[in-house]
Amino acid sequence: MRSILVFVLAATLVGCGGGGSGPSGPPPPGPTPTPSPAAAPVYQPLAVGDTWTYRCNASFSITNAVTQTVAVGATTTYALAVQIPSSPTASTTETMLVANDAGGNTVLYGYLAGGKAVPVTPATIVSAAPVLDASYDYPGPSGGTVTRTFVGFENSHRTPYGGVYVVAPYFESGGTHNYGYALGVGVVEEDHGPAFEFDCLLSALTLH
User: Fold this and answer.
1) What is the rounded CA–CA span in Å between residue 35 and residue 178?
2) Which DSSP state fits 147?
3) Is residue 22 part of a domain?
4) What is the Cβ-side half-sphere exposure of residue 119, based on CA atoms within 13 angstroms?
């Protein structure tokens, strides 16, 4: 607004000078673009190269990672490779094809198996506004249904990376697995095995 007033004043002064033919100067600068608002934080960030490393029972580590994008129909999904320990020396890796929708919910669209996308019926596995005791069940990688329930907000155990977080925990398969999501961070604590045999706490994080 100030630049426009200066320009109008300059033009008025030239007109009062009585027929001056010199240039009146450069035009005022155009409006400055308004920055786009930052995207709202989600419980499960997704960008290729994101990694979450956990220290389990203070004795061994596992890492989850977003490895690539994969098209499932018309949807661009992110391949989230999740490492699931079965002992201090053995684990399995399950690669889920997920994406965050416009509402901030994380939706499962399929799995990556043998380098190929295996679509499933889309299911919300992390809600932007989870409901206490609500079910967020989803199709399993080998068929069937994985049961998943939101059990209410709570504090995590103290993690090596970032200390204590407020988390949204989801229990799976009768409590055999659980995942605690911190807003804007992802899973900061997860437990595996009967009676929470393996307690895995976030020890390193890379987000893009």
Assistant:
1) 39
2) -
3) no
4) 8
